[in-house]
């Protein structure tokens, strides 16, 4: 395949994963966007210019996650490998639980799609490849599609039972050749792997992210989680994550903030990570003690608040003296992003 253009622009929103109970499944896109400009070079060189977040820490060669993802996607699409100049304007905080790694992967894969001349029809390809590179889809999905997403990994051979009986005959659901599953009434086979769906987010839903001056790696946060959890905790989270779509849609005629508070409660992961980010745990607990639907954003250490209506002034008054005034925390009030990744050719 030939390049359709020699320069592309990509912007990707920040994301907040889990939203409390939806561990590794739920994500929300936030309108804090990284902006990346890619230009093909006649040589095999990689030139990287970084402004903003990570400008003193991120690599400036082939180790950069954006470049690695770009090259992987170029290989998948069938584009020749070549040199590239990347100019990144980074606004998403790094290693804070706002999806900076998912952003980098989605940006690289989307740039390859744009170089190939692919339009919005490539969005599903971008999601699938980016989720496989990331290893989980919870941040990738909202970064690609915008809004609130719920994602899952479908494994046909594990999930579809096999009947081994001379009496009971079952139709062949899972294809022995490509592993897809064909369900009664479905128009086409359902492939294994990552999938996602969008849920409506009400226009009055506001989000705030409280960003600390310290970092926490996702890998370290994952190592803090137990292998097994009590059944009562699992049942609790199932009920709360099932409530999330209705709470976020905010169109059910009930007290939205009361539903958001219940829908963002978690027993599976946040408390196990609290010792890694005690300041974040203290802030989240304080916010919930004051009635706000607050969670750890992703693996942390950012803290997320969701609310029906703009309560910025009240939140600032509540937190100013202890958290905001000292300079160790800053408050962001991004809009809910409803577009996902945007990618286009430049200079045409």
From TrEMBL:
Stretches assigned to the GHMP kinase C-terminal domain: 255-315
Task: State the species of origin.
Answer: Bifidobacterium simiarum
Start and end residues of each GHMP kinase N-terminal domain: 65-147
A Pfam family: GHMP_kinases_N
- Encoding gene, per UniProt annotation: thrB
Keywords, comma-separated and alphabetical: Amino-acid biosynthesis, ATP-binding, Cytoplasm, Kinase, Nucleotide-binding, Threonine biosynthesis, Transferase
Q: Chief localization class? A: cytoplasm
Q: Does S-adenosyl-L-methionine count among this protein's keywords?
A: no
* Superkingdom of the source species: Bacteria
Protein's pathway? Amino-acid biosynthesis; L-threonine biosynthesis; L-threonine from L-aspartate: step 4/5
Q: What is its EC number?
A: 2.7.1.39
Tell me the protein's name: Homoserine kinase
MF terms per GO, please? Answer: ATP binding; homoserine kinase activity
Query: InterPro entries annotated for this entry?
Result: GHMP_kinase_C_dom, GHMP_kinase_C_sf, GHMP_kinase_N_dom, Homoserine_kinase, Ribosomal_Su5_D2-typ_SF, Ribsml_uS5_D2-typ_fold_subgr
Q: Which family does it belong to?
A: Belongs to the GHMP kinase family. Homoserine kinase subfamily.
Taxonomic path = Bacteria, Bacillati, Actinomycetota, Actinomycetes, Bifidobacteriales
- Reactions this protein catalyses: L-homoserine + ATP = O-phospho-L-homoserine + ADP + H(+)
Keyword Aminoacyl-tRNA synthetase attached: no
Query: Which top EC class is given?
Result: transferase
Q: Provide one Gene Ontology biological process annotation.
A: threonine biosynthetic process
**Function statement:** Catalyzes the ATP-dependent phosphorylation of L-homoserine to L-homoserine phosphate.
Report the locations given in the UniProt record.
Cytoplasm
Record GO cellular component, one term? cytoplasm
Matching entries from HAMAP family are given as: Homoser_kinase (MF_00384)
């Amino acid at each position: 395949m030939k390049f359709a253009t020699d320069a592309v622009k990509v912007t990707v929103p920040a994301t907040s994963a889990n939203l409390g109970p939806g561990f590794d499944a739920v994500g929300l896109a936030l309108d804090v966007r990284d902006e990346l400009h890619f230009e093909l070079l006649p040589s095999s060189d990689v030139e990287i210019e970084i402004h903003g977040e990570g400008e003193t820490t991120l690599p400036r060669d082939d180790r950069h996650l954006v470049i690695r993802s770009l090259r992987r996607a170029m290989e998948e699409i069938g584009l020749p490998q070549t040199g590239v100049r990347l100019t990144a304007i980074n606004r998403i905080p790094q290693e804070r639980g706002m999806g900076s790694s998912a952003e980098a992967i989605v940006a690289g894969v989307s740039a390859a799609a744009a170089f190939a001349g692919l339009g919005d029809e490539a969005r599903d390809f971008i999601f699938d490849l980016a989720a496989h590179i990331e290893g989980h889809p919870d941040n990738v999905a909202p970064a690609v599609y915008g809004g609130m997403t719920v994602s899952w990994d479908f494994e046909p051979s594990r999930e579809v039972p096999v009947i081994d009986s001379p009496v009971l005959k079952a139709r062949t659901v899972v294809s022995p050749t490509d592993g897809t599953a064909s369900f009664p009434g479905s128009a086409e086979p359902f492939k294994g792997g990552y999938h996602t769906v969008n849920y409506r987010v009400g226009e009055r839903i506001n989000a705030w992210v409280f960003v600390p001056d310290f970092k926490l790696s996702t890998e370290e946060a994952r190592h803090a989680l137990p292998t097994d959890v009590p059944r009562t905790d699992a049942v609790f989270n199932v009920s709360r994550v099932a409530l999330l779509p209705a709470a976020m849609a905010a169109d059910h005629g009930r007290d939205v903030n009361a539903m958001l508070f219940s829908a963002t409660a978690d027993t599976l992961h946040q408390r196990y990570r609290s010792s890694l980010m005690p300041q974040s745990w203290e802030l989240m607990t304080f916010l919930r003690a004051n009635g706000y639907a607050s969670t750890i954003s992703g693996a942390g250490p950012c803290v997320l608040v969701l609310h029906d209506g703009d309560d910025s002034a009240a939140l600032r008054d509540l937190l100013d003296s202890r958290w905001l005034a000292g300079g160790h925390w800053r408050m962001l009030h991004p809009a809910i992003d409803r577009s996902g990744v945007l990618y286009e050719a430049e200079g045409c």
